[in-house]
Amino acid sequence: MEDFIKDLKFQVYDRLKSPLITTFCFSWISWNISTVILIFGKGDFDKKIEMVKRLYKTNYDYFLQGLIYPFLSSLVFIGLYPLIARWTFIYWSNQLKITKREQIKIEDTTPITQEDYQNLKKSYYLAEKTYETELERLQNANKTLKEREKSLELEINQLIDKEKTIIQELSKLKEDNLALKKELDEKMKRISEQDTLIGQHQKLNVEMLRDNLDNKQMILDIDKFIMELGVKTDGLPREYIDFFKNLKQFKESNNIKFDELKVITYLLSQDGAASKQKLQEFLNIKSINFEVVLKKLFSSDLAYSDSLNVHLSSKCKEKAYDANLTRVEATTLKEIVQRFRN
Question: Cα separation of 196 and 341, whole Å?
C-alpha cells in the first residue's frame, strides 16, 4: 500500500510538472474566476447552484468556457511566451552591454583626482616593495637549494665510491669463500676416507674379538643355537654374532620354541606384519604345523591376527626392542631369514 501511494504521488507530481497542465489550470481559473469565487465563498449550496446556472446559461457555455477557451489560451501562452521571453532576454542583455560600454568611456575621459593619484602611487610603491622583498626571498631560497644540491651531489658521489668498495670487498669474500669451500671439500673427503679406514678397523676388531672370545663354551653354545635354528653359516659375516647372541637370550627369557622364534624373526624382517599366506608358505618349508605355531603365539600374547595378516603384538615388540633385535636393519633380518635351511 505504501509503494502504491508513493507511485501515485510520483505520477501526480510528474503530471503537474507538465507546462500544458500547469498553463491550462491557470487559464481555466482565469476564464472561470467568478465560478471559483462562488464555489469557495460563503452561502447556501442551493443559491450557489442557481448562481452557477446564471453564469453558464447553456451547455454550450459550459463547453466553451470550461474547456475550449482555457485550452486555446494555454496553447497561445505556450507558443508565445518562449519567444517573448527570449526577445526580452536578448534586448535586456544588449542594453546592459551598451550601458557598460558608455560607463567605460566616461571613466576613461574623466581625469583622476590628486588624492586618487597619491593613493595609486602609494599602492604602486607598496606593490613594488612587496615584489622586491619576495624576489629577494626567492633568490635566497634558490641559493639555499643550489647549496643543498651540491651537498647531495657530494653525498651521492661518496655513496657511489662506498658502493664500489663494498662490491670489491664482496668479490674478494666470494673468492675467499670459494677457496674455503674447496678446502672444506678436501677435508671432508679426507674425513670420509678416515671413517672408511676406521670402519674397516672396527670390522677387523670384531673379527678378532670373535676369534679371541675367552669363553669358548659360549661360542659353542651360539654355534649350536645357530645350527638348531637352521641358519646356513657358510658366508655368514662375523658381525652377525651379536644378533644371534641376543636372539638366543630372547628365546630363553621368553620360553619359546624354535618354530615360534622363526615366525617372530620373519615378522620382524617384514616390519612387524605379514600375510597369513606368505607366513604359511614360509613355515611349510620345514613342514611345521602352521595353526599350532600361531595358536601358541596368540595364547602367549606375542602376536595377533586380523582377517588377512599376522602382526607382532606391542608386548612382543617391546621385548624385541629390549633385546636389541629391532635395532637390526630390516634388510639384515631378511638376509638372515633367507638363510633358514629348507
Answer: 34
C-alpha cell belonging to residue 276: 597369513
Q: Tell me: the pLDDT tens digits for 220-247? A: 777 777 777 777 766 666 667 778 888 8
Q: What is the torsional sign of CA 226, 229, 234, 235? A: negative
Which domains, ranges and CATH numbers included, belong to the chain?
2-109 (no CATH), 214-338 (1.10.10)
Written as nine digits, the cell of 136 is 629577494
Q: Among residues 256, 248, 246, 267, which one has the least CA distance to residue 324?
A: 246
Q: How far apart are CA 142 and CA 136, in angstroms?
A: 10
Grid cell of 126 as nine digits? 607598496
pTM confidence score: 0.36
For the segment 262-276, what is each residue's pLDDT rounded down to a tens digit?
Answer: 888 888 888 888 888
E runs forming strands in 245-301: 273-275
Say how far residue 279 (Cα) sits from the centre of its chain. 53
In the block, residue with C-alpha cell 542583455:
93
Dihedral angle over CA of 190, 196, 197, 200, nearest 10:
180
